[in-house]
Amino acid sequence: MSRRLLGAAIIASLAVTLTGCGSGGSSGSDDTLEIWIRQAPDSDSAKTAKKLADAFTQASGVKTKVVALFDDFETKLNQQAAQKQLPDIVINDTAQLGNMQSQGWLREVDKASLAGGDKLSDRAWSAATGSDGKIYAAPFSAQAFALIVRKDWREKVGMQPPATWEDLAKLATAFTQKDPDGNGQADTAGFVIPAGTKRGYASWYASSLIYANGADFLKAAGPGKYTATANDPKFVEAVQYLQDQFCKSKTVNPGAVSNDTTVTHEVFEKGQGGIYLVGPYVLARFVKSVGTDKIEVLPVPKGPAGGPGTLGEGENVYMMVGSSMEDAQKKFAEYAISPEGQKIGMNKDANGAIVRLPVNTTVDMAAERQDPRWKVFQESYEFAVYAPPVPNWAPIRQTSADAINTVWADCTADVKTAMDGLNTKLTQELQSQKAS
């Protein structure tokens, strides 16, 4: 059975189980608010989540239990839903809203009645809004993508920060050919790229350049309806630019087409490449592991046909159906979006931030974080692009990743032909989701 048909079968079987899901109660006890967050257990981020929950308990008197999970997070949520034992709160990616809402897991949020809701940015609220125009979460964290670059290498090869895609390609070539680490070996690359297909990483990475060129995967075509645009010339141009880095200039780290972010972080840290297009969540880690004087953060240059643009992501606080603690759910969401909750989640300049960029407009990020490099990410957020609230973004990202990865791995592949094929598949996927 294909992945798509298997996924459809699982969702169909769960749909029967989920009918009346709200009557089953949450997975926690009646007096303890159970909070799930998509972070590795015992990680710095999980510890920050525990700190946030503890501060909420102290402020409200509501007991909490934090469950940090990373691998197979969505699968485990499905299992809890099938047992009518969803957690009370889920802190998860904005891109998961459509999937969770379409399965009936989420309580609708009354923005006007949420204390502090009027202090949150409009862009963050848009990422908490479903395709039906209703709000299904409280915005919690935002992030935009930018370039983390080896500043010492750039200065060694005598080049300025890139202002265009051509400049960026030239910098990548210099990092590859001019021995920027000075060890006398041809062992450095320009770009480090998580170009594998696991969790759709190839598409995830490429999206920032796609948006920077004024293109997108989908175009809105009415309330809850979309048209696939992967064959737009601007889209093709962005994917072609990256294929040229893999195949013509050969400026990408070896093995990139099989790598996920876990491996790619290490490639950058080991000095095997010098340009990483990524979110701010690794900045503190790289400051510590690579050296603060060796790295800089630069905005993604506008593409030749559009821009500016970059990938926008974040996390929402989702209040799950079936909870016996609806008032406590609301109180936690209000605490998480408050200045106090946002500051705890930001974790200053230390590793483990679960609030990358604050969504509460009254929080002065510069007062919380002394590292000025965060400002580049904050400024990039002004033109960041979120995944649209289709019923299920995951298969769209995965299908796109499969197609994009193929043209990066096979240098004989024609990008235009491949993107035409991708556009057909995305159209079919939209039709299957009744979002075409």
Automatic annotation (TrEMBL):
<dbReference type="GO" id="GO:0015768">
    <property type="term" value="P:maltose transport"/>
</dbReference>
<keyword id="KW-0813">Transport</keyword>
<keyword id="KW-0732">Signal</keyword>
<comment type="similarity">
    <text>Belongs to the bacterial solute-binding protein 1 family.</text>
</comment>
<dbReference type="GO" id="GO:0042956">
    <property type="term" value="P:maltodextrin transmembrane transport"/>
</dbReference>
<dbReference type="GO" id="GO:1901982">
    <property type="term" value="F:maltose binding"/>
</dbReference>
<dbReference type="GO" id="GO:0055052">
    <property type="term" value="C:ATP-binding cassette (ABC) transporter complex, substrate-binding subunit-containing"/>
</dbReference>
<protein>
    <submittedName>
        <fullName>Carbohydrate ABC transporter substrate-binding protein (CUT1 family)</fullName>
    </submittedName>
</protein>
